[in-house]
Design a protein that fits this description.
seven-stranded parallel β-sheet; 10 helices; 52% helix; 284 residues; Rossmann fold; alpha/beta
Length: 284
């Protein structure tokens, strides 16, 4: 009897996580789709997915969700797609310690904790795939994305180190980083909500920039050129799960390829000017 491969996915309420969960289920995987809000978990269940509550900022929630998944899989887990994250806009000088800690709690520390819980399971079964949804902002910085930039830069450094350590211990466990540029999702509306909750634009030196940024965040449709649907990420996840030698990094969207190239060939100052023009802030 051929066992169906199981995969745990975080951040499945919408966008990339939802699309990957549905796509892998259609492909025959035993998918465990998690979300941090009870209403989203119920919605996923109604659509035929096995879903559990998992809040990456809560250690108890992480442990409980994994226990439930393992109870369904007889203690096995082939894949983990670390997708759950959100973006906190705001100038670096306007980010309080608490706000920055909250960004890292969701985007970095929770992902690290969950991965460390999964690794012994994969070691025992002799195989596994751990896939991280990073970002183009994991290797380039843009103004007013400092908290998100920092969390994704940190994630990439941690994953690069983990990959080397897994090579040294000769485990059949592979890690991959997916680096999307603009993807159709609820990322922008969620970022706008985080901005309004945690940033005081009125008393900031960046007030005029914030006014323009809010206009962009409230736009409907694709506000950024070269935006792709989340199915573009699904294709990369499938390759990372099924290839005998999965790639270390999977760029997604034209901007990711472009800026990876420009970062290699431009000077730091020329790259800074390019990033400011790209962000649209040079016009103000």
């Amino acid at each position: 009897m051929i066992m169906t491969k199981s995969i745990l996915i975080t951040g499945c309420s919408s966008g990339i996580g939802y699309t990957v969960a549905k796509g892998l289920q259609d492909r025959g995987y035993d998918v465990y789709a998690t979300a941090r809000k009870p209403d989203d978990v119920e919605k996923l269940k109604q659509e035929g997915l096995t879903s559990f509550l998992l809040d990456l900022s809560d250690s108890h929630s992480i442990n409980l969700a994994l226990e439930k998944v393992l109870a369904c899989t007889n203690g096995k887990l082939y894949g983990l797609f670390n997708n759950g994250a959100f973006g906190q806009p705001g100038a670096v000088e306007d980010l309080s310690r608490q706000v920055l800690e909250n960004q890292f709690s969701h985007n970095f520390f929770g992902t690290h904790e969950l991965t460390n819980l999964v690794l012994p399971i994969m070691r025992q079964q002799g195989e596994g795939r751990i896939i991280y949804n990073s970002s183009i902002l994991g290797f380039i910085a843009l103004p007013y994305r400092g908290a998100y930039n920092a969390s994704k830069f940190a994630l990439e450094g941690l994953v690069d180190t983990l990959r080397l350590e897994l090579m040294l211990t000769k485990q059949n466990i592979y890690t991959s980083l997916i680096e999307p540029g603009p993807i159709t999702s609820r990322f922008r509306p969620n970022a706008h909500a985080a901005f309004r909750q945690n940033i005081d634009p009125i008393n900031s030196a960046h007030k005029s920039f914030y006014e323009a940024m809010e206009v962009r965040l409230q736009k409907k449709g694709n506000a950024v050129p070269f935006t792709l649907p989340p199915e573009a990420v699904l294709k990369k996840v499938i390759h990372a799960l099924e290839s005998k030698r999965p790639k270390v990094r999977y760029p997604v969207t034209f901007p990711t390829y472009l800026f990876a190239f420009l970062k290699r060939v431009l000077t730091h100052r020329a790259m800074d000017r390019m990033l400011i023009r790209t962000s649209g802030e040079a016009k103000r």
